[in-house]
Structure formats: structure tokens, C-alpha cells
Amino acid sequence: MGVVLSRLRRVFGRRASLQEIAPKTSTTPDAKSSESVQSSTPEPTPSPSPIHIAIIGSGIGGLSLGVGCLRNNVSFTIYESAAQYSVIGAGVGLGPNALRAMAMISPELRAAYDTISSGNLSEEKLHVAMEAMYAEPGFGESRGWTPQPFGAECYERTSAHRRDLLNILTAHIPDNAVQFNKRVTDIQQFPNEGRCVVSFSDGTTATCTAVIGCDGVKGASRGFVLGPAGFPEEVAPVFAGKYCYRSIVPMETATAVLGAEYAGDAKCFNGPGVNIMTYPISSGTECNIVACKFVDEPWKHPQWTHRVPIETIRTDFPNVDDRLVKLIQCAEPVQWALHHHIQTSTYHHGLLCLLGDSAHATTPHQASGAGMSIEDALILSHVLGRVTRWQDLEAAFAAYDAVRRPRAQKIVVTSQELGRMYACSDPRYGDDMGKIVENLNVRFLWIWEHDLKADMDTVCKLFREKTANGKNT
Ligand SMILES: Cc1cc2nc3c(=O)[nH]c(=O)nc-3n(C[C@H](O)[C@H](O)[C@H](O)COP(=O)(O)OP(=O)(O)OC[C@H]3O[C@@H](n4cnc5c(N)ncnc54)[C@H](O)[C@@H]3O)c2cc1C
């Protein structure tokens, strides 16, 4: 990681400055795709920002938005409740859509991602997302099942440690653009004055033109958007009927426990009420494990994460191959309740807007939550770059909502459906792994092949229509 940071710093200096990393053009061709952000209808070059945005939260969503704002000359400050950038987290897999979005936000960021990510360790499995297996003892061998790949030509397997991903993002953010120890407790907006006042738990306040809530699934900003917008019942995250154990182990450990045949390349082990994923990260030196347990009862523990006795892992995965149980037991025995925002009727209200998990937290089955936040950041920063007066901010948010919400909410719904399929509780597939793989080979295409350039054109077109002839005056 030090290498990545030092490389970035060689390119940008100690910390990137706005001028150095925000070229005046918005044309950022993807190193790996023919897509570029150049609209078919020429868009005016972004001029210096007439607005100042408060970005709440410095997760993948908030930081990606920050990088996008730099590129589009949109002035911003990030307010983060923690004392420093997060260094915790597990593996994150990104699809080609997310990588294109990243490249369109910043080709340098996309290039840095290549230095921290890992594919399958077998080179011939470049386009394999995962190999589907039975979780049962013997991994389905007694049924004659051998690991079956799913993926697509348009897809290249890549995952990273969340810490490394955050590091390459933060290397792009100037130090003076972030304030730590700033837990948002209240947001007041004065739409007729183009002004918001954000209050923090330390008693201070900040004034800005608009607020983008990137504060995650439990974030406070969701309440300030959906409550006043008339959807208070949608504010609280909904328990998705499953919890997971997450861990990262050295690849040697994974190989010793699972066997060389099953470690190294990404695997998806399925069985009644369980789904366990393993995949390489950190240039193949580590193996990420996410083991989901599906339950019928509501989540009762007051905390979303809580420690359980190590034996609970065995009782949670009763008909699972012993090798997998042992691998899961390498994790801290902590259960993480999975919550999502299955219904979100709007992503904006007045001068407040939502991005990332605060808008559309999803279950992890389609490995798309972080990817969606990067796509959000691309579209929102692009349209914000076209705002020349604060009176047009609501139109920009409405255009972003129209482009992003249908796709992001579809992710939330289809991910929950996929969870049922993995857990063998979808009657159309049962435990027929052949049928499941058939579905897996097509179900991701709409996510991976999505045309982001068309989205950028659409968001600009909608914005132009909404603001034509000073409609918002
Ligand atoms: C088990 C699991 C596996 C996953 N795997 C994948 C995957 O493979 N691929 C993928 O794309 N996605 C994956 N995801 C989803 C992904 O991790 C999230 O979608 C993504 O990290 C969300 O980023 P975010 O910036 O929106 O929110 P967060 O990362 O939650 O960041 C929110 C930030 O806001 C701060 N904050 C919170 N409240 C306040 C406040 N009041 N004031 C100020 N700051 C505040 C927090 O401290 C935090 O820094 C997975 C999720 C899980 C649970």
C-alpha cells in the first residue's frame, strides 16, 4: 500500500491540490473501456463553483463524490464523525460498471485501483466471477458436482481490501477538505436562501449551500430527507433476514484449511439457509470470507454486531463441510446483522440529497453496494458541475434521483432475491445448482454492462429541461 501512496504522491505531490487533480475538461477516457464522459451533446465546461457542498461521511461513497467534485470544480467539505479515515473493513469486489465509473471520475484513481486489487489466482479464470459449489460435506462431490464457473466476457474478476480502496481515494482528497470528529446531529435547510446549517455533536455548526448525506446505512441524513419529504416510515433500515461472519485470513491459511483446489480462486458455496463466499484480495496474499446465515426471526440484539461463542459458528452452519466451518471459525465470532433500504421513495428533499448506503443500502449478494456509490458519485458530481447558481440545485438533485434511483433500488431488490436463490429457498431453483449457475450467468449482465455515458447524457438533459428559461427563479 505504501507503494501505491508513494506512487500517487509522486504524481500529485504530498497531497493532491485541487488545481492539480481537477482538470478543466470533463473528458476522462476509461483506461479499460471505450466509454468516456464526453457527452454526445457538448456540455459547457464546468466553471468555478457557485455553491459549497457539505458531504457527510468519508466512506467509499463520500470520498468518491469528493474526487468527482474536484474534477467538476465543485467546492465541498467532507464532515466525518470518526477521528480519522477508516482503516477497518473486509474485501470489496467491484464489477466492470463500478470500474468504469471510477475511471470516468478519475483515470488516476482507476489506475491506482489496479495496483491494489486482485483477480482469481488462476490466470485462465479472468472472466470468472466465482465458482458455484454446494456448501454440504464434500462440496457436492457425491452428487457428481464439480465447481461450476459463472461470469461473463464483459467481466473481469477484481476485489480489494476496503482499507486499500479507501487509501487510494483519500490520497486524492486535499487535507483541508476534510474535518474529522464531526458527527452530524441536525441539518436545517433554508431553500429560499440557498443555505443549510449542519450541527455537530461537538456543539459547532457549518453553513453550506447543500448537503449530501453519504453517512451509510444508519446515517442521520436519511431522516432529514425522507421524513420531511413525506416518507418517515422508510427512514429506518430493514433487517434483511440474515447475518454474516466476515474475516480476512492469510491465503496460506485458506489453502491449508480448504485445500489448494478450493482456495485461491473466488468461490460461492450454497446450501439451505447458508451462503459462503471466499475470494482473494491484497494481491492474492489474503482470502476474504463472508459467511451468511439466513434466519426467519427478526434481529433481536440491540447492537447490529455482537460477539458470540465460537461454537455458535458450528451450530449456525450445521450441514456445511467441516473445512468451510473451520475457515469461518478463523474469523472473530462476530455476527453482523444485514440491513437494507428496500424502499426509498426519493433521494432528495430541497437542498439535501442522499448517496451510497444512506440512499440504497443493499445486501451483499450481488457485490454492488460500493459500486453503486461510485456510480452515484459519478452522476451527482457531473450534474453538480453544471450548476451555475444555487437556485438550480434542486433541479440537479431531481435529475440525479431520476437517473440513479431506479437502478440502485433494483439492485437492492434483486440482491435480496439472489440471497434466496443462494440459500436454496427460491422454489424455482431449489438446490439445483445447475439451474442456479444458468441464472447467475445472465443475472448480472444488466449491472455490469450498464451504459454510464448514457446516464451522464440523461442527467444533463433532465437538468437542462428542468432549468430551461430560468424555470427555478
Ligand atoms: C458483508 C458485506 C460485503 C460487501 N461486499 C461488497 C462488495 O463485494 N462489493 C460492493 O460493491 N459492495 C459490497 N458491500 C457494500 C459496501 O460495503 C457498501 O455499499 C459501501 O461501503 C457503502 O459506502 P458508503 O460510503 O455509502 O457508506 P459507509 O462506508 O458506511 O460510510 C459512511 C461514513 O459516514 C460516517 N458517518 C456515519 N454517520 C455519520 C454522522 N452522523 N456524521 C458524520 N459522519 C457519519 C461513517 O463514520 C462512515 O465513515 C458489502 C457490504 C457488506 C455488509
From TrEMBL:
The keyword Flavoprotein is assigned to this record: yes
Domain FAD-binding: 53-412
One Pfam family matching this protein: FAD_binding_3
Keyword Oxidoreductase carried by entry: yes
Superkingdom assignment: Eukaryota
SUPFAM superfamilies per UniProt: FAD-linked reductases, C-terminal domain, FAD/NAD(P)-binding domain
Key words of the record: FAD, Flavoprotein, Oxidoreductase
Start and end residues of each stretch annotated as Disordered: 19-49
Family, as annotated: Belongs to the paxM FAD-dependent monooxygenase family.
Name the UniProt record assigns to this protein: FAD-binding domain-containing protein
Protein species of origin: Sporothrix stenoceras
